[in-house]
Design a protein that fits this description.
Elements (H helix, E strand, L loop, with lengths): L4 H4 L10 H11 L5 E2 L11 H12 L12 H15 L8 E5 H13 L5 E6 L5 H7 L3 E6 L10 H7 L4 E7 L11 H13 L3 E5 L24 E6 L11 E5 L2 H12 L7 H13 L1 H22 L6 E2 L7 E5 L7 H12 L1 E2 L1 E2 L10 E5 L4 H21 L1
Parallel strand pairs: 1-11, 3-4, 3-5, 5-6, 6-7
Antiparallel strand pairs: 2-8, 7-8, 9-10, 10-13, 12-13
Helix pairs in contact: 3-10, 4-10, 5-6, 11-13, 12-13
Enzyme class: transferase
Cofactor: pyridoxal 5'-phosphate
Keywords: Aminotransferase, Pyridoxal phosphate, Transferase
């Protein structure tokens, strides 16, 4: 039987970008001592107090059908958080709870694009962005963010990518994979294009608690943007709750009403006992959140102290998120070749830049998701490998 083109074309007929990760995981499963810096998942477990709240809610019987938009208390807590962090007045009716940031990305594109419309996203990009667009029948198209501009997207590049059916632009700040935090100037330039061209902006802000330099500015806070911006949020990164799948979309009330209808016909909401744990995390978990952010801040400092001693690659300015991006073109290798050879020779797994689009070719991404001792060892091996390859180039 024939399957739909929509489902069989999610990856565009090519790799989904996770080949090196899968090789590293297979080597680990075979017993090899790989230090795996490929996946942006916490080595920090979800705090026991959050898990206790989830457990108690389940034992108390909160296991039936949930409220599809999200529990009122949870939506209120998210709205309060967004208001405090962005300065934009936000209420319950501006919020819909989603099964993780990934579910929110899919839903946001379903809300903004019809079949055959063009949906833009900035390259380098998180590996699931193109498939999220294809999954709702839209056409994915990239806007390059170039190394010479420190991966800050430029307005003219956005304008050049727009065609007659372009409806939306997806951005991500703090940024995965580069660790760049978009400046006010960058975001104001993006906002002007969105307003001038009457487009939706989808703003993926799941790393908003991980800002090491400067400050995070939500583009929804800029003049004229509140009614044309859908903000993606999540507890995955801020509270080490990746497996709990607590995400949300914040936007104008009309869009949220329709997104609630979409949830009714797809996921039918998030399990209620997980929502109770999310309420606890938002209302009582401030110290937990701060501790997680501080651990990644310390790991970033540790990593930079090792990497900056070498002249054989360039570290992309890392201002936020749990990643570092390295320009390894001085080795004469592609990011993919470097990542595969590093894994084979040094048992260190990193993601090739090409997994995130051609704008990141010749780069590799490091996830700071192991403890400091392992991180030091992995980066010492990486520096040794890069220096040997650069001498041979």
């Amino acid at each position: 039987m024939r399957l739909s083109k929509r489902i069989t074309n999610l990856t565009g007929g090519g790799s989904d970008g996770w080949d090196v990760f899968r090789r590293a995981r297979a080597m680990e499963d075979a017993g090899k001592p790989v230090i795996n810096l490929t996946l942006g998942d916490h080595d920090i477990p979800t705090d026991p107090d959050i898990l206790h709240a989830m457990h108690e809610a389940a034992l108390d019987g909160n296991t039936g059908y949930p409220l599809v938009p999200g529990a009122d208390e949870l939506r209120d807590a998210i709205a309060e958080r967004v208001t405090e962090r962005t300065g934009v007045p936000t209420g319950r009716n501006n919020v819909v709870v989603m099964p993780g940031g990934q579910g929110a990305l899919f839903a946001a594109h379903a809300a903004t694009c019809d079949h055959g419309d063009t949906a833009l996203f900035v390259e380098p990009y998180y590996a699931t962005y193109p498939g999220s667009v294809r999954g709702i029948g839209a056409i994915p198209k990239t806007v390059p963010a170039r190394p010479e501009f420190d991966f800050q997207p430029q307005p003219q590049d956005i304008i050049d990518a727009i065609d007659m059916r372009t409806r939306s632009l997806l951005i991500n700040t703090p940024h995965n994979p580069t660790g760049v935090v978009y400046s006010r100037e960058t975001l104001e330039g993006i906002a002007k294009v969105m307003i001038d061209r009457n487009m939706w902006l989808i703003s993926d802000e799941v790393y908003d608690t991980q800002v090491w330099e400067g400050e995070h500015l939500s583009p929804r806070a800029l003049p004229g943007m509140a009614d044309r911006t859908l903000v993606i949020g999540s507890l995955s990164k801020s509270h080490a709750m990746t497996g709990s799948r607590v995400g949300w979309i914040v936007g104008p009330e009309e869009a949220i009403d329709h997104l609630i209808n979409l949830s009714t016909h797809t996921t039918y909401g998030l399990p209620a006992y997980i929502q109770d744990a999310a309420i606890y995390a938002l209302e009582e978990g401030g110290e937990i959140e701060d501790d997680i952010a501080e651990r990644f801040r310390q790991r970033r400092e540790t990593a930079l102290s090792i990497l900056e001693k070498s002249n054989d690659f360039i570290t992309v300015p890392s201002q936020g998120a749990m990643y570092l991006m390295l320009d390894i073109r001085n080795t004469g290798m592609t990011g993919e070749a470097f990542a595969n050879a590093l894994l084979d020779s040094e048992l260190v797994g990193v993601m090739p830049g090409e997994s995130f689009g051609e704008s990141a070719a010749g780069h590799v991404r490091i996830a700071l998701t192991v403890d400091e001792d392992q991180l030091r060892e992995a980066l010492t091996r990486l520096v040794r490998f890069a220096e040997a390859e650069a001498r041979a180039a």
